[in-house]
Amino acid sequence: MKFTEEHEWLRVEGDLVVVGITEHASSQLGDIVFIELPDEGTTVSKDDEIVVIESVKAASDILSPLDGQIVEINEMLVDEPSKVNEDPVGDAWFFKMKPDNMDQIDEYMDEAAYSKLIS
Asked: Where residue 75 sits, what CATH number does that domain have?
């Protein structure tokens, strides 16, 4: 698993990358009440704003960590955004994407580096 400075996690599954937010981000946001996900089939560039999260504390945008195409979204989160607070690194992933260049993922931190960032 890789981590961004914006507190996203990235997990490679075959030729896809699954993206969500970390437990740290989830706890910082507080109770999540709304999530707007991108449309499947959307082509994105790294750093595009593609997910909107609203919590009782703040609104936040999630940026695309890679260039590529959104191939699947987690529909469950539209109806149950609070799942992100319950299981941010498991069932509450946001989207799966097919990256244009899988090597882009190497730019991100491993778990040890991310732990150091948030400590």
From this structure: 2.40.50.100
Query: pLDDT tens, 26-73?
Result: 999 999 999 999 999 999 999 999 999 999 988 999 999 999 999 999
Q: Against a cut of 0.90, is the pTM above it?
A: yes
The Cα 35–Cα 37 span in angstroms is 6
Q: Is residue 12 part of a domain?
A: yes
Looking at the structure of the chain, the number of domains it has is 1
Element (H, E) at 79: helix 76-79
Tokens of 27: 């706890």
pLDDT at 57: 87
Look at residue 109 in the predicted model and tell me its pLDDT: 97
Instruction: Say if 119 falls within a structural domain.
Output: no
Angstrom CA distances, 4 to 16, 79, 93, 115, stand at 17, 26, 15, 11
Identify whether the C-beta of residue 51 lies closer than 8 Å to the C-beta of residue 38: yes
